[in-house]
Write a structure and sequence with these properties.
heterodimer; A: mainly alpha; two-stranded antiparallel sheet; 2 strands; about 70% helix; B: alpha/beta; Rossmann fold; 11 helices; 14 strands; about 20% strand; disordered N terminus
Amino acid sequence: MFLKLQPRGGASATMSYLSPLLAGVLTLLTGGIFFAALGHNPIHALSVFLIAPVSDVYGIAELCVKATPIMLCAIGLALTFKAQVWNIGAEGQLLMGGLAASAVALQLLDVETALALPLVLFSGMLGGAAWAVLAAWLRNRFNANEILTTIMFNYIALYLLLYFVHGSLKDPQGYGFPQSALFADSALLPILIEDTRLHIGILFALFAVVAAWTFLSRSFLGFQIKVLGLDSNAAKLSGFKHKRLVILVMLISGALAGLAGAGEVTGPIGQLIPSISPGYGYAAIIVAFLGRLHPVGIFFASLLMALIYMGGELAQIELKMPLAVTSLFQGMLLFYLLACDVLINFKIKLAGSNTQVENV
Amino acid sequence: MKSSVKKILSSAVLGLSLLAAGGAQAADPFKIGFVYVGPVGDHGWSYQHDQGRLAVEKHFGDKVETTFVESVPEGADAERVIRNLAKAGNKLIFTTSFGYMNPTLKVAKTFKKVKFEHATGYKTAKNAGNYLSKTFEGRYVAGFVAAKMTKTNKIGYIASFPIPEVIRDINTVQLALQKYNPKAELKIIWVNSWFDPGKEADAANAMMDQGVDVILQHTDSPAAMQAAERRGIYAVGQASDMSSFGPKAHLMSVVDDWSALYIRKTQEVMDGNWKPENYWGGMAEKDIIIPAFTNMPAEIVKEAEQLVADITSGAFFPFTGPIKNQKGEIMVKAGEKMPLNNLKSINWYVEGVPSTIPK
């Protein structure tokens, strides 16, 4: 007895809502069996993973802190992916944003002005946008594959950051260690809830979600981007300026990633260090697809991603599970979520049976 | 069935809130948390810290309970992990990488009753101390062994980041080469990582292609040792005993042994006489050990062991003048010892290192 996939001939509306649910149930089941096999109480283990991280105000604040950079990057990426521009460089754009923001913040160490923070954040957006537009320009001018250029730009950005954090941006009083001085308070993001690290960056991310939604569904430019992604020839025939659209989506995407980087250095970190991102730009690629390239989907997907990171940490602390086990659980969840999406466009049939494909 | 599920859930929630309140009962074990930058299986830096944790468990038995979190990125995440460890009732927390310094101090401000120990940094607080090991003492012996064992007079050095610790150790190797084999030349490759087996192996291979026949490393994976074994040359292990990765290549390993320190700190906090300190221990404190000298003639082993004995007793100090910088200026006068505070923040190469510090 073998199973095979048969095209539905169209997306199933029911399944598009059911598939995340199904994935959730499958994850809980497999995870439970897996934890039980390791000698843990499965329900306790799952609650440590999925509930305990957000069981108090501090936990919820941390969830938002962790989700903010992922959300910002993923919203931008979704925009480029919709236009069939494959920006894999959110990580590099984030790093350049963090670097540019830090460079400006370090010039303002002794300046107490309300303009400091906007200036720092704007520099971050500019840094990220410039890095992304460079790749867009290479694509437009030389037909260079942006998948490759953006990946390579990630490495260049990382080494540029290391160059500066080991060099001119290093704290002169830091005994030669690779980190900048701590930023002045005027260059730090204000905290929303006292005694937590929840900063106003989350508001930027929420604003990006709403703005991207409106932009894509209500504006003519957003419509052009969608047409470009669905059928570039149709876009060309309609007279849409293809190259300009490529620049535009990369500009927005880069600026959002840059803002994410600026938000990290002026938010929870408070200085420039060699490792400002544990791979948010890459996680954002998964999140963008997990959210089905839809701003609201991305909102929930980034929160979920942040939750399973935090659950992984708590599982190490509370259950003394090794990192490999927690990563395995995280991978399983993402796998189920993406795999169940197959059922939106396909249905499962026994290999023997001969049913006709439904008409489109 | 349903009620038992409820029971488990409520007990889980209760347990968590109890932990959060830090309400330890008299019979509860003393809880100690560890934060590692790499995986415990790196066979280098984090592995050795975990060996220290296991030594604490072995020494105190039921009286302690330890928890570790591995591969914690040195960015925004570190603060949450350290805080969660404090919230979970750990009374002593070791944060074992430089990048945890500011996050550790931030959490220490909030959790005043918890004691924090941060490795390799320089900041302290009322409830936060820092500690470091004098790897340079072991590295000097490695320089001596390399000087004696090289035939091509080319010594390879895989370096991580240009921070004082790494620059100090490159200097100490150069001082040993100058003394025992002035013809030997250092070739340094920076891999900009503490743990990257791929890059470390690439660096080792590139150096061997240039004729290097002894490889030293200030990175944590055994990749270079394995590469040396394959190509039939010598290597010196770092952080943990790497002899099993290169049965024919291994000359010695500079091992960080945190057991004694971690047991002492735990005892101090349990007894209530812990104080924050800037601790820097070496061979005399048994924090740096060289388990064995292998694959070398007996007379070199004998000389190396004498060197270890002299450094341990204090009869010999590697940074004793005259020491010149690369411009030839005298930095330490003849017969004088370089002050520890200057050593801690060293950012220049001694004369003879054939390259400049990357910026």
